[in-house]
Amino acid sequence: MVGVTEVSSAKIVSKVVWSQDYLSYRFSDSHPMNPIRLDLTMRLAEALNVCESRDMALIEPFVASDEELAAVHIPEYIAAVHRGAENPSEEIPEFGLGSEDNPLFPAIHDSAALIAGGSIAAAREIIAGTAQHVVNFAGGLHHAAVAKASGFCIYNDAALAIQELLDHGFERVLYIDVDAHHGDGTEQIFWNDPRVMTISLHESGVSLFPGTGFANETGGPDALGTAVNIAVPSRTSDAGWLRAFHSIVPQITEQFEPQVIVSQHGCDAHAHDDLTNLRLSVDAQRQNMLDIAELAKRFSNDRWIATGGGGYNVIEVVPRAWTHLMAIAGGQPIPLRTEVPASYREYVLETYGVEAPEFMSDGAELWWRSWEVGYDPSDPIDRTIMATRKEIFPLYGLDPWFD
After folding, report:
1. Which residues are tagged catalytic?
2. Is 7 within the bounds of a domain?
3. DSSP assignment of 238-287, as one string?
């Protein structure tokens, strides 16, 4: 049995990328990707005095230029997004635009490019050495591909941040994705680039969009072993999720020796998120944030860019999860039994007619079995772990008997 790990309270320089203009990324009034989640996250963080009490400076995002977006996306696709903004009733299926998931709207380019600019700005803070940790919780749009919108994602801001780091001399960037959905867009963008390792822990594609991310998807011919996929079964809960993470991610991170970690913290794996089939608590999601913060401290000279991602329970889950993320990035995690401020709860009730949670915790009892206690072939989580370890570990001299 393993307990909760906290990060050191040593002072670190952390920043948060934020603008009210992020709320313009809104596909429609009924679309699941509702920017209310961003507004409520910042309101909760302010109610808890997260940034001020940790000296976390707020930095403004900028609208990424077409040239900056072209570091990852082809010009024809960027032009199609512009065209869709001008003609939102149009469908552009060859680029994934105008679909039910990715409907067009007048601000589609500018709002998506603003989120992209936010993650590029985060990368530039790391490059300049003006911050160790930077959070862009509006980002994490990990399904966007080189030439196609997908899964509510137009421009892949995390990939753009990674490319910015590479273009400025970083040679090993680790991307860790703990969204319920496979981080397929980011993985494919760097599929054959040995400088980037993508690790995605997600619900199996057997039961969830986008239907990819299996253990045998391990990278291109020039980058074999740099795509790591951990596809847990439907209904996985805290203990199985954390066992899977700790049985693979720290070991591979140590072998890859990243200079920077970029992470995606979609919180749609929560039990009360209607778009997935997982059963996590906010407590477990917070633990994943602590774990990744600790990996950055141990292996990447404490350089860490954290983004948001999926998350569709906009009242109960998202604001608490990403407020925890900001606090952890600021070096002072919020204790789990912290009460949600009354002023915030009153605002949510008056504005949306819904009761917000009373505490920053779901009251979960976090524990997980370490891999060292043994493998149970009848356990579907253990079979998931074993499948990934068999594919990846021998490539790094780990578990060589699988080779």
Report:
1. 143
2. no
3. HHHHHHHHHHHHHHHHHHH--SEEEEE---TTBTT-TT---BB-HHHHHH
Number of domains in the chain: 1
pTM here is 0.96
Give the pLDDT confidence of 343-383 residue by residue, as tens digits. Answer: 999 999 999 999 999 999 999 999 999 999 999 999 999 99
Residue 68, in any domain of the structure:
no
Within 10 angstroms of residue 387's Cβ, the number of other Cβ atoms is 16
Edge-to-edge strand ranges of the sheet holding 173-177: 57-59, 14-17, 133-136, 304-307, 260-264, 173-177, 196-203, 227-232
Q: Tokens 């990846």 belong to which residue?
A: 392
Which CATH number belongs to the domain containing residue 384 in this structure? 3.40.800.20
Structural domain span for residue 355: 14-61+112-402
CB-based contact 38:138 (threshold 8 Å): yes
Distance, in Å, from the CA atom of 73 to the CA atom of 77, rounded to the nearest integer, reads: 7
Q: Which residue has the tokens 């900028």?
A: 62
320 in any annotated domain: yes
Segment 189-240, tens digit of pLDDT = 999 999 999 999 999 999 999 999 999 999 999 999 999 999 999 999 999 9
